[in-house]
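Predict the 3D structure for this chain.
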Amino acid sequence: MKKALYLALALMGTTTAAIAQQGTPPAGGDKGGQSFEQRKAQMLKRMEERMQAMQKTHDCLAQAQDEKAARACRPKGRTGGHMEGGGMGPGAH
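Done. Predicted structure below.
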């Protein structure tokens, strides 16, 4: 169960780094006509949504009593994130 939590936290860090890079405008230019404040507000909103989803998953995993219950905590509609060696990713039995 700890492996799943560590994987989720690692993915969160990767996503956050990618978004941070997206928020950096090209030198001397405005990104898509949006101001820094608009982009910042959008990024903060998306981060808040992801943090809420992560907290919900965390709480679910904390309550899980077995592998089946832990798998049920995964967000729906996501693909990938497969862990090797019997993790809880797609294809795990």
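The chain is about 60% helix and 0% strand.
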